[in-house]
Amino acid sequence: MHRIRVGVLGCGMIAQLMHLPYLTALRERFDVTAVCDRSFDLAEAVAQRFRVPRVYASLPEMLDGSPEIDAVAVLNADHVEPVLLSLRRSKHVFTEKPLGYTVAETEEVAAAGDAAGVTVMVGYMKRYDSGVRRGLAEIARLTRPLAARLEIVVGPDYGNWIIPELARIVRSPQPPPGSDTRRERVRQEIPGSRDAALETYMDMFGVWSHDINLLRAAFPASPDSIKAHASEDGTLLTASLRWADGPQCTFLGASTALHRFEESLTVWGEDRTVRLDVSNPFLRDAPSTVRIWRDEPAAGPGAPRGGAVEEVVTGAHDEAFRAQWEHFHECVTTGRRPLTDARGAVLDTRLMRDIVRATEH
Predict the structure, then answer these.
(1) Is residue 150 in some structural domain?
(2) Per-residue pLDDT reduced to its tens digit, 239-250
């Protein structure tokens, strides 16, 4: 099997907790050649922990010092510029979500990926969860979807409260240098946006982008009408979406003080109801669950109606983070287009932007 040589940008929590453990475990598919981080001491500690031979302080240094790298894993906070630089060097790219924070920059990345002729895959790992795949398949079987409800409610620190309970994460003793320009870029694309809407977008899009992508997987067309409201502190957003020839959907996204993770998509159809409960992504190998409610047909003419049936389907105990890396390997080595590609990420960003814009009315 062909081994892909990977350079990793960003050595923070998600790299240590999920990506590097699976990349190094999938040694028949990947060779982690180098890591880099603006906090060089952090990069050195992570390289030692995962036995990565080369360490750099920046992406340009890594690309210059290890030109044999086939692919770059972009796991830092702001993804657009590193992805574009990697594409200019003709490297395949796996990037954490969201791909970008504005429609303009995600469109730029998608166009650059097409021009480079390489794989660009966005890390919506929940789409590779076997339970999520089954749930989406069951939703696709509905005769006619009528209504949907999408909910994501996480605990303190936008759901990251659970991390210290799961693993020891190495942190840099000093904050890395550099400025974060994401907020200003969003202001330029959504001029005049209220502070509440901007806070919601900036603080929660990293979490909610999974759910926006899941909603688009269930209903690919763009909604015809969006109405939305955001709390002043940016921790709560509700939206109502309507498709002219499809269902109406309510969306609730929130971060609360309760140490609990809730994420679900329920779709009511004419013939059955499907509910997908998504497992906490930080709990390895935890399966997602699908519930299906339907009526049995009557036994025959004149017979009483059939019974009401509830089916519970539990996904396999496979890890979605691992599955997405296996998919990335397949795409790079065969030329297959990723299930979660850059073009899809453009549509995700556009829908989230439009939801935030709707809070202004």
Answers:
(1) yes
(2) 999 998 889 999
